[in-house]
Amino acid sequence: MTFIYATDLHGNKKKYNEILNYAISNNIKTIHLGADLLPKNDDLIHEQKTFINSFLKKFYNRAKQNNIKLLAFFGNDDIYLGKKDFRKFGFLLDEQTIKIDDYLFRAYPFVCDYPFNLKTACKLDYKGWQKPLQYYSTAIDISNKGFQYINDLDEYFSKKTTIEEDLKEIKGPYENLIMSFHMPPNKLVRCLWQCSLYGKFKICRIFIYL
What are the structural domains of the chain? Predict the structure, then answer.
């Protein structure tokens, strides 16, 4: 099958429209949006909610009118409070498996901890993995009450499973499975090829920075 894959659009309306226009012009019926869908400026919660309920909803309606299926999941810069509004017109690949033709699509949204302060989508890579030095003195999580400060980051991560543990729990079938992972690199200036073996999965990450 043929599909378009795009990630880290961060609310860029021009890029969204270019992708959809290309799909329509070339009769491509599936677009896979690989997370970090939403804008990330100062007022995150309000801005992302507005983007979902205005532009993104219209974007999905236009895709539907052209018989184009959209696959997506939230990334580490997407505030999880927005999932409720998103589910009104779309589905999330990290919450359900989608079959298209003979292929299964799934997604894993969590990332290794990074130096930034928003930690909702962060986990340790494996037990004993050393998290990076933090750029900020405070860490933040998102709950139904909004932003919550994390007083003890080690305690926070001790209550979460690791990425290694999660991947070992992924159940089959594995044949014709297209599994998306959202793992943004930190300030790489060259191409990096990194492969890790987690149970049945060999995860290869290719990052190219210009």
Answer: 4-109+170-207 (3.60.21.10), 112-162 (no CATH)
